[in-house]
Structure formats: C-alpha cells, structure tokens
Amino acid sequence: MSQPPTATAKRLPAVPSWVGAEPTWSARPAELSGCRGEPVATVDHASRLVQQRMVNRAKAAVPALQSIDDDEWFALFRRAAEIVRHRVEGGALTAELAALSSACGLPVRRAARGILAVVDQMLRLDDIMAVQSLDGTTSPYRTGQTGRGWSWLPAGRTAMVRVPANFPTIAIEWLQVLASRRPTLVSTSKHDPFVAAIFVEALYEAGLPDGAVSICHDSAETFHRLADQVIWPGEQYPPGLDPTKLKLYHFGRSKAVLPEDPGDEAWTRLARLAFQGCGRLCTNVSSIAVPWSAQEAAESLAAKFAEFPVLPLADPAANIPAFTDPDDWNYVAKLVEREIAAGAEDVTARLTDVPLRVELDGTRFLRPTVLRVQPDSPLVRVELPFPFVTVTEVPRAELAHACRDSLIVSLTGKDDELLDLLVAEPSITKVFHGEQFDRGYDPIDPQEGYLADFLFQKKPVLPH
Amino acid sequence: MNNPLPLHAVSDAHARAVVRRHLHPETGSPFWLERDRKLGTDAYSKVDGWESAQELLAFRDEADQEAYEEASRRRPVEDFIPADVVRDDDFLWAAQTGGTTGLPKHATWGGAYWKHVSEFSHYAMDTHGIPRDCNWLYISPMGPHTIGRLVLDWAESRGGMFFSIDLDPRIVKIFGEEGMTQAYDRYVQHIWDQVTAVLQSQRIGVIYGTARLLEMIPEYVDAKFLKDVRGVVHAGTTLPVQSHKLLREDVFPGVPVLGMYGSSTTSISWQKPFEPEDEHQLVYIPSSPSVAIDVVDDDKNPVAYGEEGRVRVWRLTDDQLLPGFLERDRARRVKPYGAAAELFPWAWVGDPFSPEFTEGRRVEGVY
C-alpha cells in the first residue's frame, strides 16, 4: 500500500502520510490545488485508525529515543540536514518545490531558501536545545537528572505539532520537539504537506528510530484526542482541544518603535524585517509607532517597499507571496480597503500607483503596503499574510502601552527610558534594540518562553 | 458451488415483467406512466428485454433525473407504485433517503424485495462468519432510515436481541455547515457515552456501525468492552483500505469484518468473500436482479473493468422502478473474481465513495 491508486499521481508529486518510518497511503489521495486552481499534488489523508497507529508507534518509540547518546542523536539531525540540502541544491526536489510554491503562494526561490534556513538550524540543534535545558547542556533531555531533589521529565509521552503553511522555516518548531527526544506527531496544514515530508524522509534515512515522528496531513482529530501535549500555531485552536495540554505558538503582531527618524540604513533594515519569509512570519514588523511625524515615517518606509515589485512566483527575484484561496485574498484586501475608506492613507498607492489587488497570470497578490493609520485602528493590532505595515503617531508617553500584546518590539536608536518601559510591559515577549533591533527569529531566543518549558516538568520521583 | 439465492444477472424476462407492471396502461405507476406519455416512449409495448429497457427507459439527462427526484420529494409515494402492488397484501416500507443532500426522497421497499434482500444478507453474513444467536449493537441512523429496520430484522431473525444507538446524520450535516464544531464534538461524545453504557452492561456479539464510527472505536471505547465481539458489520461511507486492514488485524483480530454498500436507492450490496487478493480493498456484489448497479463514464457508458466512474442504479422490483439513476457516488467497476465469481457473474463495485463527503469531513465524521 505504498503507492497512490490514481492515475493523476503519475505526473504530480505524491505525498504520503508517514506512520513512523513507513510512508503510507490510507486510501484515496486528495488532490491539492495551486494558486491558479490547478492540481499540484496528490496527498494522503490518514484515517483515524491510521492516526491511532501513529500514536501507538510514537509511544513505543520512547525507549529508543532515550537510548541514543547525545553526540549520535544530534549527529543524526545533522546528517538529515545534509540530505535535505543535497536534495534541494541538487534539484531532486524541483517538483515538490514547484508544488509547494503554488499551493502556498510562495516564490519558488524563497521557499527553497526557507527550507535551507531550517537545514542551517538543524546543524546547530544541539546548541538550540542546550540553551533551553536546566544546566545548559543537552544531557537532561535524555537523563532527566538535575542533581537536586527532583527530576526534569517529559510532561507527556507524545506531542502533536500543528504546522501552518506560512513559510517553511516554521518546521524548526516540530524539529525542536523531536530533538527533545519526544515522539512527535506532525499535523500539516492542508496547503503544505511538503516540507514536513521532506524532513521526515531525510530523518529516517539518517537513522531516526521508527515511530519517532509521524505525519498526518490536513485534519488530525485523533491526534487532538490522543496526543499527550499539543502545540498549536496562532491564537485560535479547535474547541475540542484540552487547554491544559495545549501550547499556542508563533502568534505575532511584532512592532517597531522609532523614537526619532532612524536614518536610511535603518529604513532598509526595517523593510527587510517586514519582507522576511515573504511577510508571513510572526517576527515580521507589522506596525510602527512614532512620536514624531507618521507621515514622514510612512513615506520613508513606503519608498523602501516600492523596491519590491510584485513578480510571478517563478521569478528568482520574487519576494511577494500570492493568495491561494480567492476568499482569503478578498477578505484581506477588504480589511485594508475598509480602513482606507475610514480615513487611513495608503501611502504606497500614492508613491507607486500600483493597485492593492494585483493579478498576474491568474495568480492573486496584494502589493506590499504601508498604511498610515490612527492609533486606535484595528489594523494596528493584527498581522496580515503579506508585507503590510501600519504606521501611526503615538505620544511618547503612550508608546509602551501602544505596543502591548506583541511578540517582538524593535526599538531603534538608543533610548534607555523607553527601553525600560518596553521591557516592563508584561505582554511584550521580546524587545530588540540598538544594533540588534532587527534580530528577528533565532531559535536560541525564548519565544513565548522556551518549548522545553512546556515539554518538560519538574517532578519529584522519590526515592530516586 | 451452488447458488442458494434468488440472485442472478438481470434477465430479459425480469426486465420485461417489471417494466410491464410499472407501465401497465391501467394499473401502472402514475408517475412513470405520465413520463412515458410525455416522452412518447410507449415502453409497455416496446420493451421486450433488458437491453430495450435500458435504451427506452433510462433517464435522458440531468433534468429528467431531477424531475424524478423532485417528484419523489413532493408527491405521494403511491404515485410511483403500480396500483395492484399498492392493493395487495404484502407490506410496503416507506423508505426515506438520508436527507443530507436536501429534502429526503421517498420510495418503498415491498415485502418481496425485502425478502430478497434479507436472503442475500443472511447468506453474506453466514459466508463471512457473522455469528447467529447473539445480540447486536447497532450504531447508525434509525428513524426514517431503512437500514435501521433492516438490521433490526436481521438481528432478531438470527436469534439475537437488537440494542441500538440512534444517529441523526441530518443534524450532523447542519453542525458541519454552520461551523458548530463544539456541538459536533459533543454529539460524537454523546454517541460514545451511549455505546459504552450498552457495552458495559450487555452481552454484545455483533457490532453494526458506520465505517467512520468504527474507525473511532479504539479512541472512545476501552478494549476490554469489545472482547466478546465476534462479528462487525459496517456501512455508510467506505472504509479506507488501511483502516479496513487495521480494523481486521488490530482492533478486532480474528473477528469477521463485513462491509455493506447501500442506501435506500442503491439497495444492499454485500462485500465479496474476503480473500488475500482483495488487498483489503472493499469490493461489493450488487443484489441483482432487484437492483442493477453499474459504473459509468460521462456518456453513461460502463467504464472498463478496473476504471473509476459514477455509480448508476437500476431498481427493478414490483414496487419501484428506477431507470438508470446517477448517484453522487463514484466507484471502481470490478470484474468478478475469486471464489464468488461464478455465483455472482455481474459487474461488482469497488471502493465506492461520495466526493462531496470527502471534502466535508464533518458529515463524513459519523456517517
């Protein structure tokens, strides 16, 4: 049962489920559509019984994962990373990358670079995991020993990670869960079954024990019920999920605070921060607050945005993501258009004359946009899935409050007083300032805390 | 192997008899007589066998079939039955379709047809090893749904008692369409709470459930409550191949697992005897000649064996005529093979599925 049973699978990438190390076709594969409505791949959907088998395999894998010594464990990830790099750079994944590009609306070259960024992070997974552990080494993940009156133990035998289709770099989340030696149940989003499958295949080739990771594409209700812990992206999660075993991750609304005009180089870096991951990352700056002229600030940023034209996804210079679902495209465009109708200024439109809605060869885009808005605009507190930044004028005394509920706040220049206020605001997760204001994402940094804080618990097991 | 059943390929005599009964100028079915007059077919005089019945009577196009469907929703069910069948002493079960695709359609299952289906059903269950003299737990739609009464009949006539947990696929569809995820989840839990209560307190030998529910069993029911189960029968949407394998090998090892494909329209097709060459694909034998099922292409021609197409149904019984109804389901056309090929030498149906249900998994979730 290792081949999809339809004829269409002959020409398109066929993405199986993975029951541990076993690529599996549960039944009739679903056809995945690209951003022009064209079929791009056939994808398996694991039935509930197959998902149960994945969970059982995961539980059975626990002893094997604990038995591998640390050097070999992380060498395994490095081998897998090199396998993926070799395949991406050698052209072996051309069909998958094309399908990923169209299904997720990502420029082909950016999607490939996103995968390679994960490869680079896998090469240093030992460092990424060590920084999260109790003693700064990787051994507590394996031994649970703390040298104190309690142990540091997994808070469950299995963990499910739901992986959104935003951008391939998000794969590092479930890779960290696996690297903590936790059997991992990956639930991919409907639009991107590819990236997880690429890495899982390489991991098993590199020697990962059977059952350590499984993949169910699209909905995975059985995982929701049976996984001991669930890691879910964004802030909205299925109502049936038990909140006591749930961690939400990578919701964004990252902002920047500019006490004064930061200068041309900083504007270039801010624009780059907005375009990282095609504007689909939680770390993209989505709103800028200034205590000076929002008009001037918006124009400076819009001038930089104008250097990124909307290009076909296959163009090597493309940076702008497309919208696969016409309803999503329409919904997001309307959010912006309503705000303009309510008095916001589309600064990009004034500078470029490019309309907000762009269609190229049947593919739908929204052009990168800088919008000058009032501080109470609802768009200040949302992130949209394309390069989009609001600029608003806020009195200096209110800047920290205006940045509440943010993942990252970037502070340009040197302003210790403002820095203290931002650091003291409990709903801001990270503050980057000075030379590192555009640090973006590095898995070394805590992000909504460390994953290990959720995955492990301090538990006295006495006597030892 | 002798065929102990009244099943055979549709013969000219059978087709001619059914057509003449439904289109008899004096006692025929009002709806089919009206259609015959409207189309100028004169099928009563011209149909002399199965081939001419197909040529003259099959639904002409989508509009023709839709006219029938709407009539079956709005007109009295007697309009589709020959008057002498309405008058005779045999019972007529008023069947409704599932109602998940609009207002339910009405039809009947007459006594003779019921007997035909029952004989085939007991044969299939005995052949597959579904035990007699034990109680059944039925987890499927009751109420207006024909399957509830059918299974009740089978359980009791096989010497067991019938415990049932009702399902309402129509409300599940509403939950799905209106995004009522919590209500859906609560409903599913409600089903399993009831199932567990019966399994805890009663001696259950056979479980009947929709394929989707059977897939959930290990998640919701403690294995210790299933240890006395000696037979499993499933229907509804098709059980995926891997799930079929896992159900047989992991969830109910050594217990016969028997699939049924059917609806009020398509009647009952039973899974062929399980053989290794099936590779756990589900292949069904239609209950010909009461019902003729074929798998056709866009031009309504049967696809080649092994190919996929749309399911088309002919109902050829005294109480109902259904001339080439195109179901929403798709399936693979299967050439008879294995031990049962000689007994049932007409086209079989492989792995049927409903495309719209595959997209909307909420409806498929329980049904």
TrEMBL record, chain A:
Residues 36-223, 264-398 form the Aldehyde dehydrogenase domain. The keyword Ion transport does not apply. It holds the Pfam family Aldedh. Keywords: NAD, Oxidoreductase. It comes from the Bacteria. SUPFAM superfamilies: ALDH-like (SSF53720). Belongs to the aldehyde dehydrogenase family. This is Aldehyde dehydrogenase family protein.
From TrEMBL, chain B:
Gene3D superfamilies: N-terminal domain of ligase-like. SUPFAM superfamilies: Acetyl-CoA synthetase-like (SSF56801). This is AMP-dependent synthetase. It comes from Streptomyces solicavernae. The lineage of its organism: Bacteria, Bacillati, Actinomycetota, Actinomycetes, Kitasatosporales.
